[in-house]
# Entry
Amino acid sequence: MSIIRTGLTIALSLFVAASLTRSVIDIVRTAEAQEPAAEVVPTTAPVIAYYFHSNTRCTTCRTIESGARAALDDDIRAGRVAWRVVNFQLPQNAHLARKYDLMFATVVLVTPSGWKSLDRVWDHTDNPQAMAAYVKKELAEFRGDRP
# Structure
């Protein structure tokens, strides 16, 4: 009786694992199909600020996203910057991961003539004011603004 119970438990566990795996695959495929390639979205803003994230979005990554977005809010509202959030690990965005040498979540400023990665946002995740100052300073330097 114990052998039958063990066999049934293993079979049921394998069935549940297979069902969960299939569900996750379906969810990922649906998300991939719905998210357009990042550079397809047109903008008239002179600078595009991309927040690139991976499939896994930890608390620190979300802090970077919200902190950088908040720092750029005035420029976004004024039309000087367009904000885009992109999963660089999706197949349709793999070209961006190569182009911007992405290995982890970060902010990248892009114009037709160049780009700049703001990798040091990771240094400011525990200080929103320092994050905002860093992002604003990098944007000003990237645009060539004079102090």
Helices lie at 2-34, 59-71, 73-77, 94-99, 128-143.
